[in-house]
Specification:
The complex is a heterotrimer.
Chain A (H helix, E strand, L loop, with lengths): L6 H17 L2 H25 L8 H18 L4 H23 L4 H20 L4 H4 L5 E2 L13 H25 L1 H11 L1 H6 L4 H27 L1 E2 L6 H14 L6 H19 L4 H15 L3 H26 L2
Antiparallel strand pairs in A: 1-2
Helix pairs in contact in A: 1-7, 2-7, 2-10, 2-11, 2-12, 3-4, 3-5, 3-10, 4-10, 7-8, 8-10, 11-12, 12-13
Chain B lengths: L1 H31 L6 H17 L4 H24 L7 H23 L23 H23 L1 H11 L1 H6 L4 H27 L7 H14 L4 H21 L8 H15 L14
Helix pairs in contact in B: 1-5, 1-8, 1-9, 1-10, 2-3, 2-4, 2-8, 3-8, 5-6, 5-8, 6-8, 9-10, 9-11, 10-11
Chain C lengths: L4 H15 L8 E2 L7 E8 L9 H16 L7 E8 L4 H14 L4 E3 L4 H14 L3 E4 L15 E3 L4 H15 L5 E6 L2 H14 L6 E7 L7 H8 L5 E5 L2 H13 L6 E4 L6 H8 L1 H4 L2 E5 L13 H13 L9 H19 L2 E2 L1 H8 L28 E7 L4 E9 L9
Parallel strand pairs in C: 1-12, 2-3, 2-4, 4-5, 5-6, 7-8, 7-9, 9-10, 10-11
Antiparallel strand pairs in C: 11-13, 13-14
Helix pairs in contact in C: 2-12, 3-4, 5-6, 7-8, 8-9, 12-13
Classes of the chains: A mainly alpha, B mainly alpha, C alpha/beta.
Chain lengths: 328, 292, 411
Amino acid sequence: MHLGLPPWAVGGAVAVALVLPLLFKNFLVFQLTLVMIYSIAILGLNLLTGFNGQFSLGHSAFYAIGAYTAAILMDRFDLAYYWTLPVAGMACFVFGFLFGLPALRLEGVYLALATFALAVATPQILKSSPLEPFTGGVQGIVILKPDPPAGLPVNADQWLYYFTLAVLLLMFAGAVNLVRGRTGRAMLAIREHPTAARLMGINTALYKSLTFGVSALYTGIAGALGAIAVQFVAPDSFTFLLSVSLLVGLVIGGVGSIPGCIVGGLFVLFVPNLAEHVSKGLAGAIYGAILLLVIYLMPSGAAGFARLIWARVSSRALKPSVTEGRTP
Amino acid sequence: MELFLHQVLAGLATGGIYACLALAVVMIYQAIDNFNFAQGEMAMFSTFIAWQLLQWGMPFWAAALAAGVVAFAGGVAIERIVFKPIRTASPLSHVVAFIALFAILNSTAGFIWDFNVKTFPSPFGSRPLLGSGLISTHDAGMIVVTVALLAFLYGFFRYTRIGLAMRAAAAHPASAQLVGIRVGWMMALGWGMAAAIGAVAGMMIAPVVFLEPNMMLGILLYGFAGAVVGGLSSPGGAVAGGFAVGVIENLAGTFVPFVGRELKLTIALVLIVGVLMIRPSGLFGRTVVSRV
Amino acid sequence: MKIRRRDFCVTAAAGLALLNTPAWAQKKYDPGATDREIKIGGIMPFSGPASAYAAIGKTEAAYFNMLNDKGGINGRKINLIQYDDGYSPPKAVEQARKLVESDEVLFIFQSLGTPSNSAIHKYMNAKKVPQLFVATGATKWGDPEHFPWTMGWQPNYQSEGRIYAKYIMANHPNGKIAVLYQNDDYGKDLLQGLKDGLGGKASMIVATAPYETSDPTVDSQVVNLKSSGADIFINVATPKFAAQAVRKVGEIGWKPALNIVNNVGNSVGGVLKPAGFENAKDVVSTFYHKDGTDPTWKNDPAMKEWNAFLDKYYPDADRTSTYAVYGYAAAQTLEQVLKQCGDNLTRENVMKQAANLKNLEIGVMLPGIKINTAPNDFFPIEQMQLARFNGERWVLFGDVISGEVGAGSGS
């Protein structure tokens, strides 16, 4: 599995990312911000499903909890937007961990059902009357876009883009660190062979629940950013279909690949628009067809494909020196 | 008390819908060890084909049979064309392929037949059964058909050679191949049968909920829940699970105070997850023990 | 060089003539408007759970095609750019921003769905782009004081609820009411209007049952409502569920003294036929436009024109559903607004003219119903008329009733 790109690739990508908002119109900057937000959410799912092998269809619930936490704090309690992220992250970590504990007993399809139950229940709970004073019920909550700090020559959209980029880099670095270290190895061991892992002394129960928590934290922070970017939360924004989108993004980017999450985010935002552009009446069919094509051509996602190309290119680069050595 | 009885019977009636679809879900799970999200859409599409044939003047049973055959062929074709090339890919990639299939079928159905609801006739009529207001003839007919399908599947898997071959191919593909079973075609057959069962389910369901491209998603999710709670290795369990989900949901909606009406789906799902905690393989499922 | 007197006079005369040009003849444009075209945006659920409503968008697109074939409005063609939001609020925000910032439309027309419109409400007002003739009946769109750039079109749901309340208090003052409603903005809004209209007698409502759009059937809810002992049943549901409910009421042998179905769910072809005409007999509902299946309007010139329009520009339209009439009427309302704008196609003027519709009669609306707006009245249509289903078709009765709600009231 792919843990990270060579430093020059990362540096180049960051440089490009820094320059983009200055070149494009606000609308595209807004879209790119959404891409980054989805990438973070997909990374959360990746940690759980890709690295730890626990199948989740319920991440829309964590995204929703993060989003509503941010919205309620900003709207009812006047909290500054940057403080909502850690709070949302913490709240989701707790929820994720608590959900992960009973989920320990479930495997595969059964875990899928439990997480799916979570995803379907969340909009219903958000709409319910007891919670209405907080959540605004079906009407949802409207929040204001944060203004850039005084003195900076960027507008609100650009500021949000840079803010999101900073958060993204921080979280991706954190994920790389996590996966490369002991915890990461434990997670992978659990995915590959849970019994052997336990025999080696890994506390599978603790690690699985912790992974659930961390995964929820990531997706929750993405949700909070999403609420700020879209400036609106409502129960119907967080249906089961969102979980499906995150899963699609995960697979397209490459399960177990951290940089792949960005590809996943790009796919999830832009391909439906592309499909609509091609045919309004059959947009869904075109989207499905593109999806099938991508799966067929790149069964291991974009990351797997990139690895394949890289292997081909580097083996070609090596050949001349080998034959050179042979030339008399 | 009368309300309780009413709700139980209404729950059995909707449960019959879920049970029907749960059967198709289990069928495909037995064949490919994965859950096919597009099952509902395939059923919906087959039902639309039946509807179109009826519009063109075909008598009901001929149209139903034709739709079932088309569904079977379609299922086989989908397996051969879409899934065979990616069979070695990870299960998650398969899930995404199912999602793609879902999108294609839903969008195409909407494009061809639009999104307004259409009536689909019931072969059993819609009069109250035995004159009482408790259950209609269609609901009763649907339950009978589901049980008949169940009996047929049981007999097929237990007592026929092909059924045995299918079970072998799903459980141990390598060993099955070694004894001469064409594993690839067994999978295709499994898909075809699941698609045909789905078509029957769709034609039973459409008279109740009305035919339109989006009719199946909610039901599929309930059917999935029913199948899992009953145990994915047991068709009988899946059917029982489907009925159970229907009844629980209705009773929760009626009798749980305050939030029952708003959260009945949540309550049903919480109960299901609770069942899974106690019996992780479902109520009637076999626990699979594998060597380490 | 000496300026000859004659030249000077001619130049001066020309100068004076220019100065005296009346202001309205000067062309003023905001983004999206040019000499040749008016670019407007639309957000419709072409996919997702509400895709049946996309027929409204298609009708409107067809109508503008027809207008363009006739030369457009004041010599300008209408360029309608529509995007799909799949009934999802975040997607609606994205599409709205695309239309305003990327496509640079003059305004957005008939964006559909309460959640989607709620999501873009503040944005549109912050950007000062008209969110015109919103295609939902939520009451909050008529609030010019706080949201001067948003205006609804159809009678709002609270108005409708009040009209039912008025009718019930006049004809069934001792009744017990049971309400089935969709558990979202729209259902709750109508229920609120009903309660407000009953005022002190709101206790007449003995049972309410919500349903979700993901529920397969509403049979369980209907059974519950019957057991409450109510003798008035109000069905606040979208077509598919309204049909299921009407059918179930008949199936379980419940014969309420008054059986009301709301305006959204009263289509003959889309609701009553699937439910079964025997079950739908004596159902009461409200209307504000003519129904395509009603033989009363067979020789009505406006409906004939409507049918001819569909024949040529949208032959696949389902004429038994209300969407094709709705879209047509809304498009004609916009046509009037744009005509009134003349050459002053600024966003401000568009809103000004939209708030300046006086007794506008659209042919396909019911006789007696007029569109009226004013700077403090952002509810174009507030009148409806009751009708009873006689087993074959809707029969209008009574007078046109007004269900006025105060501006800015409602959640």
